[in-house]
Amino acid sequence: MPLDVLLVEDNPGDVRLTRETFRDANGSIRLHLAADGVEAMAFLRREGPDALAPRPVLILLDLNLPKMDGREVLAEVKADIDLKTIPIVILTTSDAESDITRCYELQANCYLTKPVRLEDFENLVKSVNDFWLIRVKLPNVPNN
């Protein structure tokens, strides 16, 4: 059964690396992309061209996004009764204590800082797959 994951990321290099690493680690992942927070919310709320979008089992969310930043996306998702059970993993370059604290206050499920080295980045994405998509029991929510 395919696992739909939403990657909210505006850096094309990080998108490519994440896509390739997931493809190598787990062939059942269908990675969907939103390049900014507005696109992410449209996808999650199934608006406009995203009317038939699947409900993701996991959201990988960058913080520093155009149009609507990741903190705003996190706050909106966790305030939405229909979306709040989707786990959100923050995947960002920021290691600022204020960002970490704020994201957990907004109910992020996990906060990870993107490593600089390619191999470390690949290992981090593999560990996200191993933990969130293989080991963790996620809620079975119908894909209405």
Description:
- Helices cover 41% and strands 17% of the residues.
- It has 5 helices and 5 strands.
- A 5-stranded parallel β-sheet has the order 2-1-3-4-5, with helices on both faces.
- Helix 3 (70-79) links the parallel strand 3 (58-61) and strand 4.
- Helix 1 packs across helix 5 (118-135) and helix 2 (37-44) runs parallel beside helix 3 (70-79).
- The radius of gyration is 14 Å and the shape is globular.
Concise overview:
By secondary structure, the protein is α/β, with parallel strands linked by helices. The chain contains five helices and five strands, in the order E-H-E-H-E-H-E-H-E-H.
Write the layout of secondary structure elements.
Layout: E1 3-8, H1 12-25, E2 29-34, H2 37-44, E3 58-61, H3 70-79, E4 88-92, H4 97-105, E5 110-113, H5 118-135
Parallel strand pairs: 1-2, 1-3, 3-4, 4-5
Helix pairs in contact: 1-5, 2-3
